[in-house]
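Re: the 324-residue chain
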Amino acid sequence: MLEPIGLDECAERAYQVLLRQESLTAGALAELLDLPPARARQALDGLVAAGLAGCRAGRPAQYAAVDPRTGLASLIRARQAELERVASSVEAYAAEFHERSLRADPRLMVEVIEGPARITRRVEELLASAEREVLAFDTPPYVTSYGSTSEAERDLLARGVSVRAAYAGEVLAVPEYAERLRDLVALGEQARVLPRVPTKLIVVDRREALVPLTGSDEGMRTAAVLVRQSGLSDALTELFEVHWAQGTPIFAAPGAAAQVHPEIAEEDRALLQLLNAGLKDEAIARQLDLSQRTLRRRVADLTRRLGATSRFQAGTQAMRRGWL
């Protein structure tokens, strides 16, 4: 039972005997376990070295067990620390192996995937492999099944994987997609919106990235490429981070805005987010369940409060004030 923390069978038997005795000598242990005296002394000295026993000098020396709640717990923590040090080196060793593989055959860096069905399957496999973080650009049109991708992300969030996604503003113009996004943010996704994003993109654990090679217009063959860990995948990750820094948070948790910025109501902040995303009035009114007339009045009021002369300037001023 104690082999995983470095004790062999003989040392474990000696420890079990020692726990039942106030103290004993190596000779006494040898008789109890039918061991050569030298082997019994070796087992006891090993327990002392492991912090599971103490030794009182004398002729002969007396050995006594340390409270297991202290001795064993300390030994377990030490072994865990050793394993964590080994685990921390896995990525470094893997990177060296991966780099050598790429030098031997650069074609291993990318995998071309053709057809909507294969792309959908590869996306699901890639998301299922995520351990720490997923980064994504999202913009229409959609080749993969939006529903299946949504379920895969729900699984990610349930597993505690961090998800950050930057959306093109036109995603919010589609009620079905906007509602899905609202649900995912409620589950823990961090979402930002921009007037446009450069491409669709998924980056998993900063080691693999999936990006389309062709468009998805009717009559055009669809294809994507899986980029394995390399300078190219690093560049795609950096591309995401640059756009993420420019994005506007969307569908923040209820109440969060009021706590951080008490001078702006939550509904006004939601309106500013949609304006800053570049949505048209019709789409904004649909998102906020407002009439066009009410929307125009609220936009004019916000613009006046911010001392702005245009919607663009209002967004800039809101960013400066920390409202977005």
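Residues 256-321 form a domain with the Arc Repressor Mutant, subunit A fold (CATH 1.10.10.10).
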